[in-house]
Amino acid sequence: MTRKNSFIFVLMLLLGGGIFYFSMRHVDSKAFIQSIHTANWWWLLVALGAMIVYLLLEAVVVKIFVDTEHEKISWRAAIRVPLVEQLGNGITPFATGGQPMQMIALAQAGIDIGRSGSILLMKFVVYQGMIVINFVIALLIGFNYIADKLNQMALLVIIGFLIHFAVIVTLLLVMYWPAFTDRLTTLILAPVKWFNPKKHEQWLATTREKIDNFHAESYRMSRRWGAMGKAIGVTFVQLALYYAIPYFILLALGQTHASFIFVMSLHILIVMVISLFPIPGGAGGAEASFSMLFSSFLPNAATLVLAMLIWRLITYYFGMFAGIIAFNVSARKRTK
Known about the structure:
mainly alpha
């Protein structure tokens, strides 16, 4: 990682520690330790296993989109992609660093940058589409609970949904409307012309060539119905495992009467709210949202803070640490 990224990573660890310390200010330390001792660690391993399988399934999606009769990516290189994505998402506002980090991982595996851009956008569209579908289901199940107890959070949930939906529409326009992409590129590169007209022409010509390759690759990939169907199915299972993690944590802390579907629905709504916070990882907002929505499931403040801590360790910090390891492991080149 660069020095700047390392600094942000350490800063997020300190911020996470500060949030945990703040959450513990009114919690009985003896009750907190007792909650740790009485926790069912087998269910916590299931929760961690769900996160690991979630990441591995994303690697499967990468393999589905990359592998053709002409080119294949190794499993080692494919697994690096979601791991470095976790690192990029975790240290940048609005998780904007995930896509560039994946691009780097694919480039290190020998995938052409134009093709990797199409692959990542197609993968992102499928992922966002599944998020929106899951959100609609969760909205039907859990929205009344939020609307009754947390009116302000209900508004954030709706705003988060609209943003995700707008992202999908914009990406589809970029992928399948060449004129729109060309105009957007021209607009973005316009300031370069003010300072260096020659450089502007070179960049514009190169960018347009890459865009033409990108649109051709996007169209070709969209015609691979079998691959698209597999990617959609794998992504649906992948997200289901991720959304189920809080349920396994509740089971570990002795809450066996919670509804599996309802807990998953609440987690979907939390993830939607987190996406609105500009701080990397939604720090602060994620913990507050979890505490507000799951407080009624747990017997005391100590158990609630423990659940929140475990949830963040598994869904956020585990991915970042795994991403650091993956980023420093060399990728094997693709096979043709």
